[in-house]
Specification:
13 helices; Phenylalanine Hydroxylase; two-stranded parallel sheet; single chain; binds fe (ii) ion; alpha/beta
Protein backbone atom coordinates (compact mmCIF):
# COMPACT_ATOMS: atom_id res chain seq x y z
CA UNK A 1 0.00 0.00 0.00
CA UNK A 2 1.32 3.42 -0.87
CA UNK A 3 1.64 5.75 2.07
CA UNK A 4 2.48 9.39 2.55
CA UNK A 5 5.57 8.40 4.45
CA UNK A 6 8.67 7.52 2.49
CA UNK A 7 10.46 4.88 4.55
CA UNK A 8 13.78 5.93 3.05
CA UNK A 9 13.62 9.30 4.79
CA UNK A 10 15.11 9.90 8.21
CA UNK A 11 12.70 12.29 9.90
CA UNK A 12 15.00 12.93 12.84
CA UNK A 13 17.18 15.29 10.81
CA UNK A 14 16.27 18.53 9.12
CA UNK A 15 16.20 17.86 5.37
CA UNK A 16 18.43 19.62 2.89
CA UNK A 17 16.47 21.55 0.34
CA UNK A 18 17.19 20.93 -3.32
CA UNK A 19 18.21 24.17 -5.04
CA UNK A 20 15.12 24.22 -7.28
CA UNK A 21 12.64 24.15 -4.37
CA UNK A 22 11.07 27.51 -3.69
CA UNK A 23 10.76 28.65 -0.06
CA UNK A 24 9.29 31.86 1.28
CA UNK A 25 12.01 34.48 1.86
CA UNK A 26 11.70 34.68 5.64
CA UNK A 27 14.31 36.57 7.63
CA UNK A 28 15.54 34.36 10.44
CA UNK A 29 16.01 36.27 13.71
CA UNK A 30 19.64 36.07 14.89
CA UNK A 31 18.82 34.38 18.20
CA UNK A 32 17.16 31.28 16.76
CA UNK A 33 18.95 28.29 15.30
CA UNK A 34 18.28 26.19 12.19
CA UNK A 35 15.24 24.73 13.93
CA UNK A 36 13.74 28.24 14.30
CA UNK A 37 12.89 27.54 17.95
CA UNK A 38 12.96 30.19 20.64
CA UNK A 39 15.38 29.27 23.46
CA UNK A 40 12.47 29.71 25.85
CA UNK A 41 8.87 30.87 25.85
CA UNK A 42 8.35 34.62 26.27
CA UNK A 43 7.56 36.06 29.69
CA UNK A 44 4.07 37.44 29.23
CA UNK A 45 2.86 40.60 30.93
CA UNK A 46 -0.28 40.79 33.05
CA UNK A 47 -2.00 42.48 30.10
CA UNK A 48 -0.93 39.64 27.77
CA UNK A 49 -2.52 37.17 30.19
CA UNK A 50 -5.69 39.27 30.31
CA UNK A 51 -5.86 39.30 26.51
CA UNK A 52 -5.65 35.48 26.52
CA UNK A 53 -8.40 35.27 29.16
CA UNK A 54 -10.67 37.66 27.23
CA UNK A 55 -10.14 35.81 23.95
CA UNK A 56 -10.81 32.53 25.75
CA UNK A 57 -14.03 33.81 27.33
CA UNK A 58 -15.26 35.19 24.00
CA UNK A 59 -14.74 31.85 22.26
CA UNK A 60 -16.41 29.86 25.02
CA UNK A 61 -19.60 31.82 24.37
CA UNK A 62 -19.84 30.57 20.78
CA UNK A 63 -18.21 27.11 20.83
CA UNK A 64 -20.94 24.96 22.44
CA UNK A 65 -23.05 23.40 19.70
CA UNK A 66 -20.60 24.53 17.01
CA UNK A 67 -17.18 23.11 17.87
CA UNK A 68 -16.42 19.41 17.35
CA UNK A 69 -16.71 17.17 20.41
CA UNK A 70 -13.05 16.18 20.03
CA UNK A 71 -12.01 19.83 20.20
CA UNK A 72 -14.11 20.58 23.28
CA UNK A 73 -12.80 17.43 24.95
CA UNK A 74 -9.23 18.53 24.19
CA UNK A 75 -9.83 21.97 25.69
CA UNK A 76 -11.02 20.32 28.86
CA UNK A 77 -8.24 17.71 29.04
CA UNK A 78 -5.60 20.44 28.78
CA UNK A 79 -7.51 22.92 30.94
CA UNK A 80 -6.59 25.78 28.62
CA UNK A 81 -8.87 28.13 30.53
CA UNK A 82 -6.90 27.89 33.77
CA UNK A 83 -5.94 31.56 33.37
CA UNK A 84 -3.32 33.40 31.31
CA UNK A 85 -1.21 32.21 28.40
CA UNK A 86 -0.48 28.51 28.98
CA UNK A 87 3.06 27.55 29.88
CA UNK A 88 4.42 25.38 27.05
CA UNK A 89 6.48 23.08 29.30
CA UNK A 90 3.50 22.01 31.37
CA UNK A 91 1.25 21.88 28.31
CA UNK A 92 3.75 19.64 26.51
CA UNK A 93 3.93 17.32 29.50
CA UNK A 94 0.17 16.90 29.56
CA UNK A 95 -0.14 16.60 25.79
CA UNK A 96 2.84 14.23 25.68
CA UNK A 97 1.15 11.89 28.14
CA UNK A 98 -1.94 11.78 25.89
CA UNK A 99 -0.53 11.50 22.35
CA UNK A 100 3.24 12.04 22.47
CA UNK A 101 3.08 15.57 21.01
CA UNK A 102 4.78 18.67 22.38
CA UNK A 103 4.34 22.40 21.77
CA UNK A 104 7.47 24.39 20.90
CA UNK A 105 7.78 28.20 20.76
CA UNK A 106 8.71 29.97 17.52
CA UNK A 107 9.10 33.72 16.90
CA UNK A 108 7.01 34.02 13.72
CA UNK A 109 5.88 32.04 10.70
CA UNK A 110 8.66 29.58 9.95
CA UNK A 111 9.86 28.09 6.64
CA UNK A 112 7.81 25.21 5.27
CA UNK A 113 10.50 22.54 5.45
CA UNK A 114 11.23 23.37 9.14
CA UNK A 115 7.51 23.36 9.93
CA UNK A 116 7.10 19.94 8.27
CA UNK A 117 10.15 18.63 10.12
CA UNK A 118 8.69 19.57 13.51
CA UNK A 119 5.31 18.03 12.66
CA UNK A 120 6.96 14.83 11.43
CA UNK A 121 8.50 14.57 14.90
CA UNK A 122 5.24 15.33 16.73
CA UNK A 123 6.26 18.86 17.71
CA UNK A 124 3.78 21.66 17.10
CA UNK A 125 5.48 25.05 16.51
CA UNK A 126 3.39 27.75 18.20
CA UNK A 127 3.82 31.52 17.90
CA UNK A 128 5.43 32.99 20.98
CA UNK A 129 3.71 36.36 20.79
CA UNK A 130 0.13 37.37 21.57
CA UNK A 131 -1.97 39.95 19.74
CA UNK A 132 -2.69 43.38 21.24
CA UNK A 133 -6.00 45.06 22.05
CA UNK A 134 -5.71 46.88 18.71
CA UNK A 135 -5.55 43.58 16.81
CA UNK A 136 -7.90 41.74 19.18
CA UNK A 137 -10.47 40.89 16.48
CA UNK A 138 -8.26 39.99 13.57
CA UNK A 139 -4.58 39.21 13.14
CA UNK A 140 -3.16 37.58 10.02
CA UNK A 141 0.06 36.22 11.59
CA UNK A 142 -0.75 33.24 13.81
CA UNK A 143 -0.20 34.24 17.45
CA UNK A 144 -0.14 32.07 20.56
CA UNK A 145 -3.93 32.21 20.91
CA UNK A 146 -4.53 30.93 17.40
CA UNK A 147 -1.79 28.32 17.66
CA UNK A 148 -2.44 27.01 21.17
CA UNK A 149 -6.18 27.53 21.64
CA UNK A 150 -6.97 26.77 17.99
CA UNK A 151 -4.63 23.88 17.21
CA UNK A 152 -3.49 22.13 20.36
CA UNK A 153 -6.85 20.70 21.60
CA UNK A 154 -7.14 18.59 18.44
CA UNK A 155 -3.68 17.13 19.09
CA UNK A 156 -5.19 15.31 22.10
CA UNK A 157 -7.20 13.18 19.65
CA UNK A 158 -5.04 10.13 18.84
CA UNK A 159 -6.16 9.78 15.21
CA UNK A 160 -5.91 13.48 14.42
CA UNK A 161 -2.50 13.54 16.13
CA UNK A 162 -1.33 10.81 13.74
CA UNK A 163 -2.79 12.69 10.77
CA UNK A 164 -0.75 15.78 11.68
CA UNK A 165 2.45 13.75 11.84
CA UNK A 166 1.72 12.15 8.46
CA UNK A 167 1.06 15.62 7.07
CA UNK A 168 4.53 16.70 8.18
CA UNK A 169 6.08 13.69 6.52
CA UNK A 170 4.11 14.39 3.35
CA UNK A 171 5.51 17.91 3.19
CA UNK A 172 8.92 16.86 2.01
CA UNK A 173 7.50 14.83 -0.83
CA UNK A 174 5.36 17.79 -1.91
CA UNK A 175 8.46 19.98 -1.95
CA UNK A 176 10.34 17.52 -4.13
CA UNK A 177 7.47 17.64 -6.65
CA UNK A 178 7.12 21.41 -6.24
CA UNK A 179 3.46 20.99 -5.28
CA UNK A 180 3.46 22.66 -1.89
CA UNK A 181 0.40 24.68 -2.85
CA UNK A 182 -1.63 21.53 -3.38
CA UNK A 183 -0.60 20.07 -0.04
CA UNK A 184 -1.15 23.48 1.53
CA UNK A 185 -4.77 23.33 0.36
CA UNK A 186 -5.24 20.07 2.23
CA UNK A 187 -3.94 21.72 5.42
CA UNK A 188 -6.11 24.74 4.83
CA UNK A 189 -9.36 22.82 4.30
CA UNK A 190 -8.76 20.34 7.15
CA UNK A 191 -6.42 21.55 9.93
CA UNK A 192 -7.42 25.22 9.58
CA UNK A 193 -10.97 25.23 8.23
CA UNK A 194 -12.26 21.67 8.57
CA UNK A 195 -15.79 20.64 9.50
CA UNK A 196 -16.95 17.20 10.65
CA UNK A 197 -20.41 15.60 10.35
CA UNK A 198 -20.80 14.17 13.84
CA UNK A 199 -24.28 12.77 13.17
CA UNK A 200 -26.52 12.98 10.10
CA UNK A 201 -27.26 16.68 9.63
CA UNK A 202 -25.04 17.73 12.55
CA UNK A 203 -21.97 19.59 11.34
CA UNK A 204 -19.33 20.88 13.74
CA UNK A 205 -16.03 22.73 13.27
CA UNK A 206 -12.61 21.33 14.17
CA UNK A 207 -10.34 23.69 12.18
CA UNK A 208 -8.14 26.09 14.13
CA UNK A 209 -8.72 28.98 11.73
CA UNK A 210 -12.42 28.69 12.47
CA UNK A 211 -12.31 28.04 16.19
CA UNK A 212 -9.88 30.79 17.16
CA UNK A 213 -12.38 33.52 16.16
CA UNK A 214 -16.09 34.04 16.94
CA UNK A 215 -17.36 35.13 13.51
CA UNK A 216 -16.21 32.15 11.51
CA UNK A 217 -17.20 29.74 14.30
CA UNK A 218 -20.81 30.75 13.66
CA UNK A 219 -20.50 31.37 9.90
CA UNK A 220 -18.89 28.03 9.07
CA UNK A 221 -21.59 25.83 10.59
CA UNK A 222 -24.73 28.01 10.42
CA UNK A 223 -24.60 30.56 7.59
CA UNK A 224 -26.48 30.05 4.31
CA UNK A 225 -23.65 31.70 2.37
CA UNK A 226 -20.85 29.07 2.16
CA UNK A 227 -20.83 25.66 0.48
CA UNK A 228 -20.40 22.60 2.69
CA UNK A 229 -19.07 19.68 0.68
CA UNK A 230 -17.93 16.23 1.81
CA UNK A 231 -14.14 16.04 1.70
CA UNK A 232 -12.38 14.24 -1.12
CA UNK A 233 -8.61 14.59 -0.89
CA UNK A 234 -7.97 14.84 -4.64
CA UNK A 235 -10.68 17.47 -5.06
CA UNK A 236 -9.42 19.53 -2.13
CA UNK A 237 -5.82 19.51 -3.33
CA UNK A 238 -6.98 20.99 -6.65
CA UNK A 239 -8.96 23.80 -5.00
CA UNK A 240 -7.85 27.39 -4.42
CA UNK A 241 -8.44 29.08 -1.07
CA UNK A 242 -8.81 32.58 0.37
CA UNK A 243 -6.49 33.70 3.15
CA UNK A 244 -7.88 36.99 4.38
CA UNK A 245 -11.63 36.45 4.54
CA UNK A 246 -14.28 33.92 5.54
CA UNK A 247 -14.20 30.79 3.40
CA UNK A 248 -16.70 30.46 0.52
CA UNK A 249 -16.46 26.66 0.84
CA UNK A 250 -15.87 24.27 3.72
CA UNK A 251 -15.06 20.58 3.33
CA UNK A 252 -16.66 18.16 5.74
CA UNK A 253 -15.18 14.87 6.96
CA UNK A 254 -17.11 11.80 8.16
CA UNK A 255 -14.61 11.06 10.91
CA UNK A 256 -10.96 11.59 11.75
CA UNK A 257 -10.33 7.93 10.89
CA UNK A 258 -11.71 8.62 7.39
CA UNK A 259 -9.54 11.72 6.99
CA UNK A 260 -6.45 9.75 8.03
CA UNK A 261 -7.29 6.84 5.76
CA UNK A 262 -8.04 9.04 2.73
CA UNK A 263 -4.70 10.81 2.99
CA UNK A 264 -2.43 7.94 3.98
CA UNK A 265 -3.81 5.58 1.35
CA UNK A 266 -3.57 8.09 -1.50
CA UNK A 267 -0.62 7.60 -3.81
CA UNK A 268 0.70 11.16 -3.68
CA UNK A 269 3.47 10.50 -6.22
CA UNK A 270 0.84 9.73 -8.82
CA UNK A 271 -1.34 12.64 -7.74
CA UNK A 272 1.52 15.16 -7.95
CA UNK A 273 2.52 13.89 -11.39
CA UNK A 274 -1.03 14.56 -12.62
CA UNK A 275 -1.40 18.07 -11.18
CA UNK A 276 -0.96 21.20 -13.26
CA UNK A 277 1.00 24.22 -12.01
CA UNK A 278 -2.10 26.02 -10.70
CA UNK A 279 -5.36 25.13 -9.01
CA UNK A 280 -8.14 23.57 -11.11
CA UNK A 281 -11.12 24.76 -9.07
CA UNK A 282 -12.04 28.19 -7.76
CA UNK A 283 -12.83 28.34 -4.05
CA UNK A 284 -16.54 28.88 -4.81
CA UNK A 285 -16.85 25.96 -7.27
CA UNK A 286 -19.35 23.14 -6.89
CA UNK A 287 -18.57 20.34 -9.35
CA UNK A 288 -20.41 17.24 -10.64
CA UNK A 289 -18.65 14.74 -8.43
CA UNK A 290 -19.16 16.71 -5.19
CA UNK A 291 -21.21 15.21 -2.38
CA UNK A 292 -22.87 18.48 -1.37
CA UNK A 293 -24.31 18.88 2.12
CA UNK A 294 -25.24 22.52 1.58
CA UNK A 295 -25.00 24.56 -1.58
CA UNK A 296 -24.18 28.08 -0.43
CA UNK A 297 -25.84 31.26 -1.64
CA UNK A 298 -22.41 33.01 -1.54
CA UNK A 299 -24.33 36.08 -0.46
CA UNK A 300 -21.57 37.27 1.89
CA UNK A 301 -18.99 37.09 -0.89
CA UNK A 302 -21.30 38.63 -3.50
CA UNK A 303 -21.95 41.58 -1.21
CA UNK A 304 -18.22 42.25 -1.08
CA UNK A 305 -16.92 40.20 1.85
CA UNK A 306 -14.62 41.61 4.52
CA UNK A 307 -14.54 45.38 4.70
CA UNK A 308 -17.77 45.83 2.72
CA UNK A 309 -20.13 45.82 5.68
CA UNK A 310 -21.69 42.53 4.46
CA UNK A 311 -23.09 40.60 7.40
CA UNK A 312 -21.60 37.10 7.66
CA UNK A 313 -24.69 35.52 9.22
FE1 LIG B 1 -3.05 27.76 12.12
Amino acid sequence: MATLANPQLDYSILPDLPADVFTAPLQKPAHVGDDWLEPKQTDYSAEDDRIWDDLFARQMEVLPGRAASAFLAGLEKLDLGRGGVPEFGKLSQELGALTGWSVVPVPMLIPDHVFFWHLANRRFPAGNFIRTRETFDYIQEPDVFHDVFGHVPMLTDPVFADYMQEYGRAGWKAMRYNHLKALGSLYWYTVEFGLIEEAPGTVRAYGAGILSGPTETVFSVEAESPNRIMLNVDRVMRTDYVISDLQPTYFVIESFEDLYRQTVERDFDRLYRSLGPSFTYANTAVIDVDDVLHRGTQEYLLRGGRGSGAKPV
